[in-house]
Amino acid sequence: MLFVGNEIKGTLKPTYQAGKLLITKMSNNSENSRFYAYLLFAEHIISKLIGLSPWTMDTAKIFRKNLFCNQLDTFTYKLSVIGSNYNILLAVFYVLCDVFVINNNLNKQINVPTSTKFEFVSILCISVIPLIYVIRQKLLISVKNQIKDVDNELMSCAGYTLVKNNTNYWIFIINNVLIYCWIIFMLLFRSSWVLRVAPILPTVFGSVLIVQYAMTINMIEKRFKSINLTLLKLKSSMRRPILNDISSIKYAYIELCDMCEKTADFYGIPTLIVIILYSIRNIGNCYEMILVFLSESEMSKTIFCSGIFAVQTCFLLTILTTSVTKLLKQSEKTTRIINQLLDRFTINQAITEKLSKFSNDLWHMKVEFTLCDIIPLNCSLLAM
């Protein structure tokens, strides 16, 4: 027993040291920015491979030395003819592989599970999404490039600092861990190669898409939070600097609202497709698990795959709805802070007029996230 315990400790020690190093890197501000750049690069490559990133990203600067931290937080994105053509070919490949390979193998088998037949339909559905990315990629490219413009505008404000947030790290890492665990169980416990491969593509595709959406929302939410903290720091009675700061903050806020609208518009249809497919599959998995428990028969090993998939679905919906809810709270908080500043600067007429105009304009800048204007994308989605 002692030998086994020592062996386990020896096995866990490298894992513990790696985790400690990861946390140390994320807690250090300088490494934080460079590490975040590496994360964006990894997310970009994974997304591009499966057809969720047809644009080009200025990744060369990640590997340059002597760069300032704020230079690593944002990148320049551009349209890519090669990436767009790759997405079109990938969508055609998905359809051909689904129809002529997976479907033919399913027809040769007897007693094919209903869930596997559903995966055939799922692959056809997700084949549309890379084409949507090609057609509407200008929207998201605009959003990603606007982040840099917003940062440049806010840098002129006195006391402005971009809030440090490690949420995107953990979203990316946890999602990858769940995906790898699920794929391993699928490869181990499924008998036929068709039963192994067919569910993998829709699952990986959907999880990467939702994580990409959540990470984009978190980047915008971080700017809203930084704006609110900067507004709270406006304590100086000097007239000119405060007026300039308010103008810069107002411009940044309008840009962020525009980014929210474009992001929700771009991800609306793809996210709706993924959530519908995930929901139907989870209903089927729950039905199969209930039958196993009621029949008192031997538990199938594939139940572990269903369990991990259910956990992953809960994780994806939670991070997406939580990210949206946090962003909405930060956007609403700006109105309350402006009202506090109006009470503080009652003596200065110019500042009061500037803040009053900003406060009135906020009523016309409503931030909303929905799935094709059908389902509100906040924590109320989890209650449905």
From TrEMBL:
Membrane topology of the entry: Multi-pass membrane protein
Keyword presence, Transport: no
Ranges that cross the membrane: 86-106, 118-135, 169-189, 195-215, 266-283, 303-328
GO biological process: sensory perception of taste; signal transduction
One GO location term (cellular component): plasma membrane
UniProt-annotated location(s): Cell membrane
Keywords: Cell membrane, Membrane, Receptor, Transducer, Transmembrane, Transmembrane helix
Sequence similarity: Belongs to the insect chemoreceptor superfamily. Gustatory receptor (GR) family.
Descriptive protein name: Gustatory receptor
